[in-house]
Specification:
Elements lengths: L2 H10 L11 H12 L5 H14 L3 H14 L13 E5 L12 H10 L3 E6 L11 H7 L9 H11 L1 E5 H4 L1 H4 L2 H7 L4 H8 L7 E6 L3 H13 L6 E4 L14 E6 L7 E6 L16 H12 L7 H15 L5 H13 L2 H12 L2
Parallel strand pairs: 1-2, 1-4, 2-3, 4-5
Antiparallel strand pairs: 5-6, 6-7
Helix pairs in contact: 1-3, 2-4, 4-12, 5-14, 5-16, 14-15
Amino acid sequence: MSSQFRELLKKVGSGQHTKEDLTRTEAAMATKMMLLGEATAAQIGAFMIAHRIKRIAPQELAGMLDAYDELGPKLYPENEQEKTVMVFGIPYDGRSRTAPISPLTALILTCAGVGVIMHGGDTMPTKYGVPLIQLWQGLGLDFAQLSLEQVQELLKNSGLGFVYLPKHFPNADGLTPYRDQIGKRPPLATLELIWSPYQGKMHLVTGYVHPPTEVLFRETLKLRELTIPFTFVKGLEGSCDLRLSQTTIVAASSVNAPNGFEYLKLHPHEYGIDDKEMPLGSISELLSQMEALIEGKPSRLEQAAVWNGGFYLWRYGVCADLSIGLETARELLSSGKVAKKREEIRAAIP
């Protein structure tokens, strides 16, 4: 048993009236001890559930990210002039109700010359939804066996990189079983949304469900002194996917806004997008619809892919406004350029 970890556990788990937030240094220490297995299984499980009940504070999230930065995998830009990369923070436990389309968004972006990094693991508690790695594999792009050096090379050559926890960050993946055992998402699930393995210029994109989480993200970035462009999306099931059937609220960094960010309210009907989310049925059906769209055939995912692809092309700065972004996304899909990009990425995978 770690006596040092026990003291940190006592702070967060002492009850409603005596609980305390950890300092940034303490949170980093606790996270490192969990990742390195220096805390016992009983201590780790108790810490996760106690920390969830207490609710994570900005300085604690900053400290946890410090530990991930120290121990986790890292991808680097080729040079100081390297373009900004979009890093997507998508819930590791996936989606269970609506069809995810983030791989299509990534292909549209890379097709337009935007570098994209995603990260995640296998099927994960507590939702046990479809993980990103499974969707990429179903599209013929298997990142699971790549070394970190090969991911770095793939990012350089194709503009797309995927950090796969079981292969590239086994210490973090080793904490996954605790999610099932405690039956709740621990604060690590919040960390994963805002964590980035990229060490260069980035545009951070992440989804969230509850408004306080978006505030937590902004405060954490300030503590870490990260003045980076960000796009925080109140998306489908906490993902980065914009909604089709209703307005999506987005907290978007803006150099022109007094506080450095603004809230966007995106109404798809105002841009001629008139559709509903595709329910998530079988994975084979989802992949079939993705494949059809990539190949330029009719697909139930077309409107969702155009809406999301166009939005992120605009947010990155490829397109001057959202309307042009939508037109560009639609053209990239219909012209076969996205299909060609997929084949280019497939050819670059060893």
